[in-house]
């Protein structure tokens, strides 16, 4: 149980917040709707009846429509466009694993659509964007149907005989005003996310690897090895017998070794080097 909560914590919390806020919307909307009913000297609705009303479903579908449209646009645009430095974008100058052709995959545990190929693979390759597009189309249709009912109820409350079908209502300025006012805010939020992630960070959130600071950094520690001086009668060509390696103390050669966790010099670092002539 604890492992399942850890591995699915994000989706569980998001679902819980969705249900909590949807409940809050229904309670506040119920009170607002009944307030309007009293102003027009009409009967109030019970909470259970309000949950089936056009007022509730228009407000719900109007927001779902904009959210799914936002996510559909996000999936499509991040697949084909770049923003240098943003954690929400692929790197423009480097190949990405997601761009590899799945048809060349030789893994036995590859998903069934990859192994099947053809039209099934093509649908699988675009399944995420198609899912969001489907949710968007369903939501915008719900918005049109519920919105037309609310519009007709308003007309009847004011004694006007005008009655619109959901197709007629979807062509009104009221419908598109309700849609555009949500769409612009969703794409503004996406723009802010893409641009601000270039300069700002949130600890613990996935970000480009170049910004990640390793917990331990390999440190090069110098060490010295005693080198016997060559005979004076036969010095090596081009090598000073007292200074066999450039930049080193007489009679010693420098080397390097890597320590994965130590920072600074080794505790055995000599304070003074022995005289090579001794």
Architecture overview:
This protein is mainly α. The chain has 3 domains: 1-52; 54-211, no CATH class; 214-226 and 245-266, no CATH class. Helices cover 51% and strands 6% of the residues. It has helices spanning 2-7, 9-39, 47-50, 54-80, 112-116, 118-125, 127-157, 166-169, 173-199, and strands at 219-226, 252-259. The protein has a two-stranded antiparallel sheet. Helix 4 runs antiparallel to helix 7 and helix 4 (54-80) packs across helix 9 (173-199). The termini are far apart. 9% of the residues are buried. The model is unreliable at 210-216, 249-254 and 256-273 (pLDDT under 50).
List the helices and strands and how they pair.
Elements: H1 2-7, H2 9-39, H3 47-50, H4 54-80, H5 112-116, H6 118-125, H7 127-157, H8 166-169, H9 173-199, E1 219-226, E2 252-259
Antiparallel strand pairs: 1-2
Which stretches are poorly predicted, pLDDT < 50 over at least 5 residues?
A: 210-216, 249-254, 256-273
Shape: elongated
Instruction: Sketch the topology as an H/E string, one letter per element.
Output: HHHHHHHHHEE
Number of strands: 2
Descriptors for this entry?
two-stranded antiparallel ribbon, mainly alpha, 278 residues, 2 strands, elongated, 6% strand
């Amino acid at each position: 149980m604890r492992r399942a909560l850890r591995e699915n914590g994000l989706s569980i919390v998001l679902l819980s917040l969705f249900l909590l806020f949807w409940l809050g919307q229904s309670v506040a909307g119920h009170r607002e709707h009944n307030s309007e009913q009293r102003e027009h000297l009409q009967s109030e609705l019970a909470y259970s009846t309000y949950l089936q009303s056009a007022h509730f479903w228009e407000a719900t579908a109007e927001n779902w429509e904009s959210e799914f449209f936002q996510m559909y646009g996000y999936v499509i645009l991040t697949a084909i466009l770049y923003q240098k430095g943003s954690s929400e974008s692929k790197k423009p100058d480097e190949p990405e694993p997601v761009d590899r052709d799945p048809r060349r995959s030789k893994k036995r545990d590859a998903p069934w659509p990859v192994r099947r190929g053809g039209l099934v693979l093509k649908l699988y390759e675009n399944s995420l964007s198609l899912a969001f597009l489907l949710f968007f189309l369903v939501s915008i249709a719900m918005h049109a149907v519920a919105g037309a009912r609310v519009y007709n109820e308003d007309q009847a409350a004011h004694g006007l005989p005008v009655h619109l079908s959901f197709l007629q209502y979807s062509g009104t300025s009221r419908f598109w005003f309700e849609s555009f006012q949500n769409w612009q805010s969703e794409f503004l939020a996406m723009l802010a996310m893409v641009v601000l992630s270039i300069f700002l960070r949130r600890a613990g959130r996935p970000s480009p690897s170049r910004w990640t600071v390793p917990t331990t950094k390999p440190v090069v520690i110098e060490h010295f090895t005693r080198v016997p001086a060559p005979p004076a009668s036969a010095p090596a060509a081009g090598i000073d017998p007292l200074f066999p390696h450039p930049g080193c103390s007489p009679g010693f050669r420098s080397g390097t070794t890597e320590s994965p966790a130590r920072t600074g010099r080794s505790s055995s670092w000599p304070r003074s080097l022995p005289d090579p002539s001794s």
